[in-house]
Amino acid sequence: MRASARWLLFIMLAFTGLARAATPAATPVEQIERGRYLARIANCAACHTNAGGAPLAGGLPLRTGAGTVYSTNITPDPETGIGRYSLDEFDRAVRHGVARGGKRLYPAMPYPSYARMTRDDVAALYAWLRAEVKPVRQADTAAQMRFPYSQRWLLAAWNLLYLDDKPVREDPAKGAAWNRGAYLVRAVAHCSACHTPRGMLYGEKGDDERSRHFLSGAIVEGWSATNLTGDQLTGLGAWSKAELAEYLRTGRNAHATSFGPMSTVISTSTQYMADGDLDAVATYLKSLPGVRGETTPFRYDPAVATQLEQGRFDRTGARQYAQFCMPCHGAGGKGFARVFPPLAGNPTVADPDPSSLINLLLDGAVTARVSTAPTDYHMPGYGWTMDDQELANVLTFIRGSWGNRAAPVTEAAVGARRQAMGTPAAAAAHAR
């Protein structure tokens, strides 16, 4: 090699070393801070903390169609938690669903989504859990799964079908925000775990935005998880990026107010997202085309509002609506901006599955508890005062008024949800 070539090679290597020195690895403090942030986005506390229990000590029941799984203790306790886990063992549990010692985890723990997290992000979670979480000695509760789902060894075959640990697919043409949003939605925030329907073996039907099933809505523990695609009536087609980011930050916007499990997600997770990440998630979700063919925007019809304002209760369910619902949601079904949600054009009202609406009317709900709002708001439940047919009548009235065109709700559907939720019948409540 000529001397000039050797000098050129030396200079190139020197500049490479300088470039590496200019971008050092994260310090332990930075790694722990990142782990704390990721734990919030991944919503670890919501699943790994039982009601009234110690933070992250597990024991929360997670009810599935195959039985009940209880979340595990992920505090750094050496006997009952992750105190003896190496980083490799922790990574294997988080991204492949295999605990230390080889026990396979049920996918109620969303490791099929976490499988796409980067090694650096998993390492940051590990650093935070070990450095800042208080160890709690609490043994895990055994899962109660029906046969054959009680056979954990079958999960090895399940993983072959549904586990894909390749990095989230990037599209340079979509820009940095879209790609960051894809990573957050598909991996860390694991939105598809609730919002993508599952097949007979409980695997998600859609893997990413190329599937018509991906984020198209699903049923989770008796609640209808909303369609997150661009459909105009039951999806996010009518929402702007800013409105979507506002909802994830505050639990409310001009179109809807959070309730049920989503209030928990917002309270414990998405309200803490950095502005850039909120914009990234909104950018990605708003890029998803509608999957239900809803291309015509909602069109408001004032006819029912006029009837109610005139004191006319001709339609079935109108009188109950006027008594129980109209004080907050108004004769026009428009609610009160960012406090009481509109019922006219609300995606949850238009949802083909009325489960969430039935739950709301039976037991009530509470909005997300966030730092940006002075208080949360409670909707009372009416299962104690209206029977199943009356509740069905009110919901059918709401789903068919002000331009809404959703299917009627049956008495049987309300009765089934009442039984599943353990809400006393109206007659029994009056008797007490």
Helix/strand layout:
Layout: H1 3-22, H2 28-41, H3 44-48, E1 61-64, E2 67-70, H4 87-96, H5 111-114, H6 119-132, E3 144-145, H7 155-162, H8 176-188, H9 192-195, E4 218-220, E5 223-225, H10 241-250, H11 260-268, H12 275-286, H13 303-309, H14 318-329, H15 347-350, H16 355-363, E6 365-366, E7 378-379, H17 388-399, H18 411-421, H19 426-431
Helix pairs in contact: 2-6, 4-6, 8-12, 10-12, 16-18, 17-18
Which characteristics define this entry?
432 residues; mainly alpha; Cytochrome Bc1 Complex, Chain D, domain 2; 3-stranded antiparallel sheet; two-stranded antiparallel ribbon; 7 strands; disordered N terminus; disordered C terminus; heme; metal-binding; Cyt_c-like_dom_sf; repeat
Describe this structure in words.
The chain has 432 residues and is mainly alpha-helical. The protein has three domains: 28-162, no CATH class; 172-286, no CATH class; 303-431, Cytochrome c-like domain (Cytochrome Bc1 Complex, Chain D, domain 2), CATH 1.10.760. Helices cover 43% and strands 5% of the residues. It is built from 19 helices and seven strands. It has helices at 3-22, 28-41, 44-48, 87-96, 111-114, 119-132, 155-162, 176-188, 192-195, 241-250, 260-268, 275-286, 303-309, 318-329, 347-350, 355-363, 388-399, 411-421, 426-431; strands spanning 61-64, 67-70, 144-145, 218-220, 223-225, 365-366, 378-379. The protein has a three-stranded antiparallel sheet with strand order 1-2-3, with no helix packed on it. A two-stranded antiparallel sheet has the order 4-5. A two-stranded antiparallel sheet has the order 6-7. The longest helix has 20 residues, at 3-22. It is globular, with a radius of gyration of 25 Å. 40% of the residues are buried.
